[in-house]
Amino acid sequence: MGVIAPVVALIVILGVASPVGASTAKSVAVRVAQYAVATADHDNPAHAVTAADVTNAASIDTLNTSNLFVLINLDDVFGYPRLVLFFDQKPFSDICLNLPDTIGGAPTIIKCPRQAKGLWDSRAGALLVSNRAIAAAALVGKAVSGADVVSAAKVFGLTLRRKPTFRAGQGGKVEFTAPAEIGNTKFTVNNGVRLPKTPYGIPVEVPC
């Protein structure tokens, strides 16, 4: 019986017992998430589900029968480490799940966090400007400074919450602010980034 149970569970996850046509996008998203969790649970050693597990599960067409796209994966958005957002292209809608951070947990459907979506939309710009500033400084043989970030932000039209004043070699934190709009709701999001003390370093997202 100990051998049969995992096989039965896998059949249920794969949806072999029910026709594909009966699946909704939400049920497909849950099925993909369940498979990702099962992958982590049955690994050796077992571990909490990771972004790689989700990506792998979403790539299996017999699971992801709605061709859902993983727009936000685990640890993609600072402050929302267990959020996975699937994008359904046909009705142009989002499906969000909270995945467990423990072995043997279960994924749950949740309302998509407005703030997380806004942060995701502005995240790329904040990191792009930060990398642009680091590269510009490295080209003249120095570490990034606050002035480099200000210059790069102007080029890309991004707004800094306050002017950074750290000097080259000190490293420092900068905060970008951007307008966001989800549906008819407008709000503001702030992305924090830590800049390195050394040339050619990598910017890291941090809390504001």
Largest beta-sheet details: 4 strands, antiparallel
Tell me the Rg in angstroms.
Answer: 21 Å
How many individual domains? 2
N-to-C span: 52 Å
Q: How much strand content do the residues show?
A: 15-25%
Assembly state of the chains shown: single chain
So how many helices?
Answer: 5
Number of strands: 8
N-to-C series of helices and strands: HHHEEEEHHEEEE
User: Which sequence of strands runs across the widest sheet?
Assistant: 1-2-3-4
Helix/strand/pairing category: alpha+beta
Q: Outline the low-pLDDT stretches.
A: 1-9, 14-21
Protein model, in words:
This protein is of the alpha+beta class and 208 residues long. It folds into two domains: 4-112, no CATH class; 115-206, no CATH class. Helices cover 35% and strands 22% of the residues. Strands 1-2-3-4 form a four-stranded antiparallel beta sheet, with helices on one face. A four-stranded antiparallel beta sheet has the order 5-6-7-8, covered by helices on one side. Helix 2 crosses helix 3 and helix 4 (114-139) crosses helix 5 (146-156). The longest helix has 26 residues, at 114-139. The protein is elongated. Mean pLDDT is 89; it is low at 1-9 and 14-21.
